[in-house]
Amino acid sequence: MLFEENTERRWRFRVEMTQLTCEHEGTIFRAPNGGIKSAERKVRCVSTVLYRPFEDEDFEPLVEIVRTLWHDDDEVPDAAFGTLEATCDLAHCLSVSTFSQVALIDGAPRGIILARSENDYNQDLSRWATIEAKSACAMDSYDAKAAHTFQTWYDGMRKVDERLLASSGLTLDNEITLLVVDPSAQGLGIGTVLFDAVSSYYAALGDLKAYLYTDSDCRWSFYEFRGMKRLGRYKSTREERSLLPREMYLYGLDLSA
């Protein structure tokens, strides 16, 4: 991927498009000789995949993906509250990130990667931080008990993350803050393209090291396949497992290797 200088943001990916071919089972209805007949067969379809920086119109579709993946369990009272949680989650990630790349299949957002570089800036930080705060207030008004559970989970995750980072010896502030791909689009190589995009972003800025947090509820093996090394692990206590994942990890990216 190539970068170009942009007046709105220091580095911005040029738009790239690829053709994605997939197969699925479909029911075909035919009417030979005036009759109607159905037959099962494989249907080959071609979709267009576009990669570009995040735009405001992507927010709601991406919130729904985040909700489906991480805010749709027994601790969430209903889908509406899960949407508020996901809104808070995504807005927070946007508020602390300086880079974004979204994958769109046939025009619909299906994945995103966000990252922060200590050598770049975020001009939209306050706007997204405001949306995060408003979402938190809306959660409290909607269901105070569930909001407290969410805040307890969030505080617990941050506490472990800070402990992992402190014990790693890392002193930089280059974090891959979010990587999410719609479950229906997983296995198509989208996550790999997004990860390569953020690697190119860091390399272009001269950042040779970065890190991210993940846990045992996620596909952490993906990061090892992409060359990241596990720098730390935290195993939740029996009491913590009611909210936190069984294990939480810190992974490091070394672009100098």
Write up this protein:
This protein has 257 residues and is α+β, with helices and mostly antiparallel strands. Helix content is 36%, strand content 32%. The strands form 3 sheets. It has a 5-stranded antiparallel sheet with strand order 3-4-5-6-7, sandwiched between helices. A hairpin with a 2-residue loop joins strand 5 (99-105) and strand 6 (108-116). Helix 1 crosses helix 2 and helix 3 (125-142) crosses helix 4. The two termini are 20 Å apart. The relative contact order is 0.13. Residues 1-19 and 21-44 have low confidence and may be disordered.
| C-alpha geometry | globular
Low-confidence stretches: 1-19, 21-44
Q: Structural class per helix/strand content?
A: alpha+beta
Largest sheet features:
5 strands, antiparallel
Mean pLDDT: 84
Strand percentage: 25-35%
Helix content: 25-40%
Rounded to the nearest angstrom, the radius of gyration is 21 Å
Strand order of the largest sheet: 3-4-5-6-7
Task: Measure the end-to-end span.
Answer: 20 Å
Number of helical regions: 6
Q: Would you report the number of β strands? A: 10
| Helix and strand sequence | EEEEHHEEHHEHEHEE
